[in-house]
């Protein structure tokens, strides 16, 4: 009996693997389900395992206070992603379906659900967050009748309860002979900071969308201001199909003076643009994104995992937005949607290598908020610019006041400067350096000169901080904080030299003398009083990568051996990514691959492989962890280095589990690197 059960499970596993390839991840199992978001850098839709349902919608960079005495929190959007479909008077539910399957197509950024409804119909629908119409979603539906059936389809705009005074309407707009039915809800956000407008409509592909007399009759049903519905009924003859779409757009006063009208215009654009043209534009933009790609030969699972990480980075960013990416991207309201060092240190480097367009948006997000950072430095008694640990649309500190990270985790200011100089290293865009890069680097360098404390021996300390290892609070001379400050001061000097600007001599004086503490055997100390405690995540080892402050092999190995054992099980995924990069650069492919897998595999959640922040948590998609995992491939196995001469390759190394590694679209010249 056990052997029979094992064979059944093996056959089931094989059939599921056979449904997957390097671009598509499919599932036929909805147990312990964690969905995968479809997003376009402005909105994110999280599909459900339930038929025609979307869990929630996230609006990028649209904030209101979480509570009257709370900090800002990113908005849940009005949920326009839920349909109700009835066949012969029965609502389609999980219990009435068979042959259920879902597929994420990473290449085209689409999410398809298909199933059989009783013995009556084959049903499929595909969800898009349109890259070409970034405030809009599109659900393309096909119902294939096995026998003649009567259908009723209801599209809904469900407004979260936290919104105020929703006004829900249905109107048929008309211009000459063109008629445009619009379901719409407009409401104030939870504490009234923003007005949000959502418009939606049906599209029938096989009829002239502008002619109301050719469409099924539309029935408006406003259950309440929070539940706005539009329905139609249609008979489908045996062996024929009903093909239609439900499209919606959502805008807010964060981005538009008149979000109601703008949402209508986007829906009208989708209504009156042929489906083939609309989706072709979306797919073409994604094809351009995938010019920056990582291709693994010989290990399908690693290929899928890597592509899924890239898919999320591309989904959550836009080159035309000057916005950044929060740790959970547009998959949830995790961390209130705020921006952390997660962007600059973890997500940004892969994007800088593979897509400078999105990378530029991430750094421009910071430079747009420079004046606010300068005010923060002044308000805490320092000079220059001091960036917030958690940033929102304003650029002010958005960390809850009780969290000491917001007041004391200062390495973020250096992390921002490091990202800026690396952007120039890769792009060599001197105009950008003069207008945006150098002003940041200068103000950050001035901050660190004012932030340090001079010791009696002429060295400098940085006191009373929370480091990357957040388990140690209010400590002195945290290794990574000090190392990142040294690096930021060096980069400011290089930027000034590049532009022919006089260098502040204090930048070199301080940078050359900030102290890094050591144990008697030469192992780097995490802080001045560190004594072997468990650490939350990589800290000391960041001095080797990405900072390149520790570079001699003896110290590298001492630090690796010592701190790997200190990493907390509940810590975030990125720590082991750093260890993997360093081992790869030391030529140790075995340990590098071991840590590469350990950096994310325990965090994968079924059925698509969404990443949670830690092995013991369940809050995907943690795109910070994906950024770390991708860095092991690019900067470890791929041997890529960001240098004053741009991106170069040194000593790549291939794990024995892979036949080859190909990295395409690297840098301004879109180079290809192959490791065999």
Description:
This is Trehalose and maltose hydrolase (Possible phosphorylase). GO terms for molecular function: hydrolase activity, hydrolyzing O-glycosyl compounds. Pfam families: Glyco_hydro_65m (PF03632). Residues 307-499, 525-600 form the Glycoside hydrolase family 65 central catalytic domain. The chain is of the alpha+beta class and 676 residues long. It has a domain at 21-289: Beta-galactosidase, Chain A, domain 5 (Distorted Sandwich), CATH 2.70.98.40. A hairpin with a 5-residue loop joins strand 20 and strand 21 (460-461). The protein is globular and about 85 Å long. The two termini are 45 Å apart. The model is unreliable at 1-18 (pLDDT under 50).
